[in-house]
Amino acid sequence: MKIEVKAKIHPSEDPDKVTESVKNIFPEIDLSVKENQVKGKSTNKNSLEKLKNKIGLQAIRDTARKELEKNRENQSIQFSLNKQVATVDKVNFSTGETPLGSIEVRIEAKDIEELIDYLVSKKEER
């Protein structure tokens, strides 16, 4: 499994706050700031645990599953999370432009359907 996250840092933003917003969703991923961007990579499925928990706690499983299925391509998923919402420790999938941009997430896995089921259980399994 390969997990990549990145978020652009706009001139009006504090790099530490952008890093913190990404850490709110992906605390297990080591992040670095380079060229006005926060980036992180992981190969550990546990790096997705907080995202999974937030999806369940916020009761947005159906929306999350639709977004993940829609953005699935072969052995990968690519999606965006609202960076501003992440600053308050919440998850919100971005489907368009947001004022300060998004947290871009790309996940590659051998069995992408299994990964989606891990992040968001099927309705009949809840």
Q: What labels describe this entry?
A:
single chain, 126 residues, alpha+beta, 50s Ribosomal Protein L5, Chain: A, 6-stranded antiparallel β-sheet, 5 helices, 6 strands, globular, UPF0201 protein AKJ53_01395, PAB1135-like, Ribosomal_uL5_dom_sf
Please explain how this structure is put together.
- InterPro entries: PAB1135-like, Ribosomal_uL5_dom_sf.
- This is UPF0201 protein AKJ53_01395.
- It comes from candidate division MSBL1 archaeon SCGC-AAA382F02.
- The model has no long low-confidence stretch (mean pLDDT 93).
- The protein has one domain: 50s Ribosomal Protein L5, Chain: A, CATH 3.30.1440.10.
- The protein contains five helices and six strands.
- The protein is an alpha+beta fold and 126 residues long.
- The protein has a six-stranded antiparallel sheet.
Quick structural overview:
The chain is 33% helix and 27% strand. With 126 residues, the protein is α+β, with helices and mostly antiparallel strands.
Could you tell me the CATH topology label: 50s Ribosomal Protein L5, Chain: A
Could you name the ranges where pLDDT drops below 50 across 5 or more consecutive residues?
A: none
Mean pLDDT: 93
DSSP helix fraction: 25-40%
What is Rg? Answer: 14 Å
Query: What is the tally of helical segments?
Result: 5
How is the secondary structure organized here?
Blueprint: E1 2-8, H1 15-25, E2 30-34, E3 37-42, H2 49-57, H3 61-70, E4 72-73, E5 76-82, H4 83-86, E6 102-108, H5 112-119
Antiparallel strand pairs: 1-3, 1-6, 2-3, 4-5, 5-6
